[in-house]
Amino acid sequence: MQPQKSQKIDLTQDYPCPCRRRGRLSPIALTEAFGCNRCQQIFVVDETGQVLEQLSGSYPYKRAWRWNGHQWNPAHAGLGESYLPVALGITLIMLIIWLPLALNAKSSSSGIVLIVGVLLLAVLPALMVLLAYRR
Question: How many domains does the chain have?
């Protein structure tokens, strides 16, 4: 099944909120913007009329969506949308490289310390990214 093409956003129509909070976007009079009745966010339409962007001072990256007639789809799917798979991939690479080296250590006490250190170095960054991704 092919994804549907994006449609032009009608500035006089109500839409569901793309933040997934079951809110409704209503047009703001005399502007090319929408306001959500649930999350109180303001969204603007770009010059082409095809992309809805969230105005927010607290979110560091600009979030944008395209309307396909039924639902909102992310407009910019890239590295910013896939932090978790990248972090898990880096963690796996670190474990594949460092764990065999730690297991082959000569003395048993330094080997255990090295294994624990490798596991902490691999798990803590992945946990931090996971917690940041859940926001």
Answer: 2
Is 2 contained in some domain? no
In a domain, 26, yes or no: yes
Integer angstrom CA distances of residue 86 from 3, 25, 82, 93: 25, 33, 7, 11
CB-CB contact of 88 with 80 (8 Å): no
Task: Say yes or no: 22 and 59 in one domain.
Answer: yes
The model's pLDDT over 68-115, given as tens digits with 9 standing for 90+, comes to: 988 898 887 555 556 667 777 777 787 787 777 766 766 666 667 777
Domain of residue 118, residue span = 82-134
If you average pLDDT over every residue of the chain, what do you get? 78
Q: 17: how many CB neighbours lie within 10 A of its CB?
A: 19
Instruction: Report the greatest alpha carbon distance in the chain.
Output: 74
Map residue 7 onto helix, strand or coil.
strand
